[in-house]
Amino acid sequence: RKRKWEKRELVNAVLYLQGVSGAIYHMIFLGLYRTQLLSQSAAFDSQSVKNTGAGFDMEKTKGVKRRIVTDDNGCLLSVVVHKANLHDTKTGYWATGLATFSYPTLKKICANGGYRGSFVYEAYKYFGLRVEISKKLKPHGWQVLPKRWIVERTFAWLNHFRRLSKDYELTAISAETLIKISHIHTLLKRL
User: Looking at the predicted structure, is the pLDDT value of residue 33 above 60?
Assistant: First the structure.
């Protein structure tokens, strides 16, 4: 059967509505769970992604960083995309601020050791969040860190989408929108 609408027209409609209202993701999230937030805690991390843009992170990856805050089920609460040369402690409060604005019931957030210091102080001062820093249990080797695996699993879900393998977008807003669209796809599959 012939399609009534082209796929590109549907994507353009979703992108338009996302830009106009910014509420599509939240509507699906709230419709899926029927509550504003299931728990009062969240997990937080960033991911470096290669692109042709400016900026280097501490690992010398040319490109951008994606910062996400997730709830205990791995659902996105906020996402921020920026140049990779900005340090975690200086920019971590951007994504945290968006999450606490959208979900004011948050009380605690779990982050890795890169967010020690000023981030812990600023998160408590400006947002009233208690920050738990996950520490490695062994000095060498790989291990599952408590609560941190949730945000890493969400990054793994997002990496299934070819468009997110690298940052092909020209603006941070379109990159954030594509991350939300990819996560909407993941949420709808979980229904």
Answer: no
Strands (E), 56-178: 63-70, 76-83, 108-111, 130-133
Q: Two tokens at 65?
A: 């960083």
**How large is the average pLDDT for residues 129-138?**
77
Quick one: which of 53, 45, 33 has its CA closest to 158?
Answer: 45
pLDDT at 31 > cutoff 70 = no
Provide the 3-class DSSP secondary structure of residue 169.
coil
pTM of the predicted model, to two decimals? 0.75
**Residue 123: how many other CB atoms lie within 10 Å:** 23
Residue 34 has pLDDT above 50, yes or no: no
Is the CB of residue 41 less than 8 Å from the CB of residue 110?
Answer: yes
| Nearest of 134, 82, 140, 79 to residue 112 by alpha carbon | 134
Given a contact cutoff of 8 angstroms between Cβ atoms, the answer to whether 39 and 58 are in contact is: no
